[in-house]
Amino acid sequence: MTEFFDIASKTYDQDFTETYTGRLQRNLVWKYLDECTGKKGPLHILELNCGTGEDAVHLARSGHVITATDISEEMLERAREKATQKGISHKIHLDRLDIKQLGDTTLDHKFDLVFSNFGGLNCIGQQELEQFKKDVRTLLKPNGTLIMVVMPELCIWESLYFLLKLRLSQVFRRKKTSVLADVSGVKVETWYYSPKRLSRIFRPEFSKVRVKPIGFFAPPSYMETFIKRHPSLLKVISFMEQRFSRFSWQSHLADHYYIELQTR
Question: SS3 for 216?
């Protein structure tokens, strides 16, 4: 899998981070993330699947100390470049780490928060997720927080898109055991988890704090071309996403959802 993400790193920012829908969704994640961390002072945060470092830079700018990890050396190199350009490399420690092997990590201290954004946990199956739960629990301090942004088992925008394209076999593709999802031109085996299912997997070690939709009105980034053709729609989507994202039930049908858990 490492080589897949090494390849994806070359265009990941172009394909997602810098797109309209990508930026809109990330800003929502940051809103909830800042609400969680803002009143707690400087935190020691472990970021899993950090990608090109966009979230690590944001968290470091907010005053936190970040250990940002990824399976891909190429992703880490791009994250390193960003941290240097922003002048905050002293607040971000970058390390290669496979989330499937957290139990073998050499990290020698515990964290206030463990964070994984935009489907990093969708890259592992349920059995591996059960092991991940046990491993990440040992990395957190008492009353520590685990925040994940995950793709659910159904996305309204995606299903409508495939329906209009008459690609009927893809309408409910997320309901399958696993699918090969496109990540910047690379096919990656992907599993999808509803908020209810994910909460159940992480019990009893973790209790649910809150769940929020990310991208209920904003479509997946691969629909960026369509969105750009309808600039008036952009304003409506942005308003609706900000105005109605407080309704947690939308999480089951959004492109992603934010789930915040706390150790028991």
Answer: coil
Give pTM, 2 decimals: 0.93
What is the enclosing helix (H) or strand (E) of 232? helix 231-244
CATH superfamily entry for domain 2-263: Vaccinia Virus protein VP39 (3.40.50.150)
Spacing of C-alpha 134 from chain mean position: 20
Q: What is the mean pLDDT of residues 130-154?
A: 96
Rounded CA separation 128/15 (Å)? 28
Q: What is the secondary structure of 75-142 as a DSSP string?
A: HHHHHHHHHHHTT-GGGEEEEE--GGGGGG----S-EEEEEE-TTGGGGS-HHHHHHHHHHHHHHEEE
125 backbone dihedrals φ, ψ, rounded to 5°: -75, 175
Over the stretch 46-86, which tens digit does the pLDDT of each residue have?
999 999 999 999 999 999 999 999 999 999 999 999 999 99
Cis peptide before 220 (omega within 30 of 0): no
Name the token pair of 136: 């990440």
| Predicted confidence (pLDDT) per residue in 234-252, tens digit | 888 888 988 888 889 999 9
CA distance 141 to 67: 15
Given a contact cutoff of 8 angstroms between Cβ atoms, the answer to whether 210 and 262 are in contact is: no
Instruction: Give the C-alpha separation, 131 to 19, whole Å.
Output: 34
Q: How many CB atoms lie within 10 A of CB 247?
A: 11
Cα–Cα distance, 130 to 145 (Å, whole number): 17
Contact yes or no for 153/174 (Cβ under 8 A): yes
Please name the residue that has the structure tokens 């409910």: 172
CA pair distance 120, 195, nearest whole angstrom: 15
